[in-house]
Amino acid sequence: MASQSAMNAGTVPDAERGRLSEAAAAPICPACAEASREAAIERYGRYELFGCGACGLQFWEPREMPDARWYEQMYGGRDENLLPLEPGHKYFLADPLAPRSGELLDIGCGTGNFLAAARDAGYGVTGIELDRNAARFARERLGLQRVFPLTIAEFAEQHVEERFDVVTFFEVLEHQAAPVEFLRKVKECVRPGGVIALSVPNRERWLTGPDVLDYPPNHFLRWNAAALRKFLSAQGFAVLSIREQPAGLAHTAQMMHMALRTGISQAAAGEASASFRDVMQMTPDQAEAVLRAKPTTRQRAMEILGRIKIAACFPLAVAALPCVRMRGYKGTYMYCLARLGD
Ligand SMILES: [Zn+2]
Questions:
Q1: Exposed/middle/buried for 34, CB within 10 Å: 0-12, 13-18, 19+?
Q2: How many angstroms separate the alpha carbon of residue 61 from the centre of ligand 1?
Q3: Taking Cα atoms as reference points, which of 340, 342, 341 lies closest to residue 167?
Q4: CA 228 to ligand 1 center in whole angstroms
Q5: Nearest-CA neighbor of 49 among 30, 65, 23?
Q6: Contact between residue 227 and residue 55 where contact means Cβ atoms under 8 Å apart
Q7: Is the peptide bond before 217 cis (omega within 30 degrees of 0)?
Q8: What is the 262 CA–ligand 1 centroid distance (Å)?
Q9: How far is the CA of 16 from the centre of ligand 1 (A)?
Q10: Residue 186: what are its φ and ψ, rounded to 5°?
């Protein structure tokens, strides 16, 4: 990881970038190791987004995953509540090609909402979660005894003999700086012929503005179905099913809200969006100060106005949904089930 960051073009002055990007500084695709010859698709702060001509993955440079404290800070507040199941979880539980029982390991299990549902569906369940508060919630409130505050590398090292029938990682792969190494660790935990199930944000989802969560250092990789299929096949998995969520009502309302910004909500939404993307870039201490600061009266008023505006978009979205469906616009979630070769 460190050597990759050292090699990338991020620290090269603009004037030299064109020359160097054709030589040693060409960014290397983290999925298939091809050198990218194309110019950056997008820039954000010190980061640049590249597309791989060989496998189709889009990846940011430089990539350096934040520590556990960062995730606790950015995703805190999700620790104390049992969240509803996400579409990826539901797709797995309803997938006719998925095994219906056996031992299941969930990577990044959060407060354990999916693990509890999987347990109720008949699986033996184990989870790993770096957010200690979330892991504690899963153990104490949901009675999930086997939830460990470990990375997949630490878990694989400490449970050398343990193999699972199913290993799941929902909304995890897009965060990885080094996806090949990550999947290698996953493979160590899957029994021969066992399966993996995962979800990632679909790069081909319908967007009318930037998705503020989909930036580094939160997400480093942007997948579509073709790139995901190539990546998993190259790593020894046979893809059994891929399911792309179609754009639904809430997504349509959100996209209309972004597209039809009035002056007031533009200020409100603009402030909120820019600040989250910006907060992600700050040092832990700076971020803590911003996240702890009380919102001003104006910010609170803007937030309420923004919510009213999204609510006002729902009737519009109901009217537009048949057309959105007909055009095949995609939603955020892409789910995939794949079997490890024997
Ligand atoms: Zn590639």
A1: middle
A2: 14
A3: 340
A4: 10
A5: 30
A6: yes
A7: yes
A8: 40
A9: 24
A10: -60, -45
Q: Which long-range CB contacts under 8 A does 12-16 form with residues at least 24 apart?
A: none
pLDDT exceeds 60 at position 7: no
* Partners of 339 in the β-ladder: 195, 238
In tens, the pLDDT along 128-164 reads 998 888 899 999 999 999 999 999 999 999 999 999 9
**Integer Cα distance of 1 and 170 in angstroms:** 23
Is 60 exceeded by the pLDDT of residue 1? no
Q: Does 270 score more than 60 pLDDT?
A: no
First to last CA, the chain: 30
Residues within 5 A (CB) of ion ligand 1: 29, 31-32, 34, 52, 54-55, 57
**Is 52 within 8 Å of 35 (Cβ atoms)?**
no
Cβ atoms within 10 Å, residue 40: 17
CA distance 267 to 172: 32
Strand partners, 48: 43, 61
Measured in residues, the chain has a length of 342
At 162-198, the pLDDT tens digits run 999 999 999 999 999 999 999 999 999 999 999 999 9
Going from the Cα of 32 to the center of ligand 1, the distance in angstroms, rounded, reads: 4
Contact residues for 83 (Cβ-Cβ < 8 A; gap 6+): 110, 111, 113
Distance separating alpha carbons of residues 48 and 70, to the nearest angstrom: 21
Strands (E), the chain: 42-44, 47-51, 58-61, 102-107, 123-128, 147-148, 164-170, 190-201, 221-222, 237-246, 330-340
pLDDT at 6: 34
* Ligand 1 geometric centre to CA of 30 (Å): 7
Q: Is the pLDDT of residue 291 over 90?
A: no
* Cα–Cα distance measured from residue 72 to residue 90, given in angstroms and rounded to the nearest whole number: 25
Dihedral of CA atoms 150, 154, 157, 161 in degrees, nearest 10, equals: 20
293 has pLDDT over 50: yes
